[in-house]
């Protein structure tokens, strides 16, 4: 039974060789010769000039938005929570996910208008 299961899976997953019934030229045992002109062109590959990738303005704008009057209180609360949890003064299994979400929501709202005006 094991051999029939193996035969089934090999017939399903292993491709059978394809046969070409049309008579055609036999493949040469020797590789095609490369012209000297082609060989010289292969060696002379011109390096392509890499364009400087523009700087992403989003990280800088995020920092500016976190310091705005609208987001600063949320950011302060998140930093305070992080320090408290890192020092072990928080409740067991306490994390600052809620505070992080509030800060990111505020920062993303601020970022959206500023970022898209710079990208346009």
TrEMBL record:
Top-level lineage group: Eukaryota
Pfam families referenced in this protein's UniProt entry, alphabetically: UCR_hinge (PF02320)
Record key words, sorted: Electron transport, Membrane, Mitochondrion, Mitochondrion inner membrane, Respiratory chain, Transport
CC terms in the record's Gene Ontology section: mitochondrial inner membrane
Cellular location(s): Mitochondrion inner membrane
Topological relation to the membrane, as annotated: Peripheral membrane protein
Region (Disordered): 16-61
An annotated GO BP: mitochondrial electron transport, ubiquinol to cytochrome c
Composition-biased stretches (Acidic residues): 34-54
Annotated Ubiquinol-cytochrome C reductase hinge domain residues: 56-119
Family affiliation: Belongs to the UQCRH/QCR6 family.
Identification of the protein by name: Ubiquinol-cytochrome C reductase hinge domain-containing protein
Organism: Hydnum rufescens UP504
Lineage: Eukaryota, Fungi, Dikarya, Basidiomycota, Agaricomycotina
